[in-house]
Amino acid sequence: MTGHVSPTNRGEPWRIARGYVTLQSHLGATVAKFTRIYTRTGDDGTTGLIGGRRIKKSSVRIAAYGTLDELSSAIGLARALCGEGGGDRAAVLDAWLAWAQDVLFNAGSQLAAVDEKIPGIPAVTQTDVTALERAIDSAQNDLPPLNNFIHPGGSLAAAQLHVARTVCRRAERLIVELRDEDDRGIGESIQYLNRLSDALFVWARWMNDRFGVPDHLWNPASSPPQ
User: Fold this and answer.
1) Rounded Cα distance, 77 and 169, in Å
2) Would 12 be classed as within a structural domain?
3) Counted domains in the chain
4) Which of 35, 48, 80, 187 is least enclosed by beta carbons within 10 angstroms?
């Protein structure tokens, strides 16, 4: 990106640690159970929120922050693929994607902590949203104007960034659905996910540009192969 805008110069530390110790203390026994993979407590189809309340795994709230986890996994694969021959551009993008995974974990923490007024729970902030806007503008400066719709694809890195983008859109839709029935713990998450999906789209084009792979333009008059 022009000027190498990075998470470290977005106005606050890249690794958001605010409230982490407090969060650990409130999680209590759950943190201690990290060394034990299975607990059997969810065998009845429920899961625990921070504070101890249990709700059905089929709830919109669980679907929402479960999809944030899925999104982070999709981003993790994108990071691995971008690092294969992506050069300096991949290193810059990796820093942004690693930061995005931290923010997504913060968003999930907010959604899981609705039952208590726990001080110091990591939160998605307007600063996070603004940081993404700067990253989008920076990457756009390196790209030719886009005058048509494009299909996901191109390089492996770009294709996976598009997969992450569509998962991001799904997470956003679920949190909007959750907001309509219970807006606790949502904060700036919807706005952040809206920007993140835009960023993932631009970053996919940015990596195709880096690998010298053209975007696959939509052709509304396309004919089948002969």
Assistant:
1) 17
2) no
3) 1
4) 35
Q: Is the dihedral of CA 176, 15, 163, 221 positive or negative?
A: positive
What distance in Å separates the CA atoms of residue 113 and residue 187, rounded to the nearest whole number?
A: 12
Strands 46-48 and 54-56: antiparallel
Q: What is the average pLDDT across 110-138?
A: 86
CATH of the domain at 161: 1.20.1200.10
Q: Is residue 13 part of a domain?
A: no
Alpha carbon 187 to its chain centroid, in Å, reads 15
- In sequence order, the β-bridge partners of residue 225 are none
Q: What is the pTM of this model?
A: 0.82
DSSP track, 132-188: HHHHHHHHHTTS----S-EES-SSHHHHHHHHHHHHHHHHHHHHHHHHHH--TT-TT
Is 6 inside any structural domain? no
Summarised one tens digit per residue, pLDDT across range 188-199 is 999 999 999 999
Helix axis angle for 60-82 and 87-112, nearest 10°, is 170
Paired tokens of 88: 């300096």
DSSP bridge pairs for 47: 55
Structure tokens at 216: 């696959």
* Position 128 in a domain: yes
> 164: domain range?
18-37+44-214
CB atoms within 10 A of CB 9: 12
The pLDDT tens digits of the residues spanning 136-189 come to 999 999 998 888 999 999 999 999 999 999 999 999 999 999 999 888 888 899
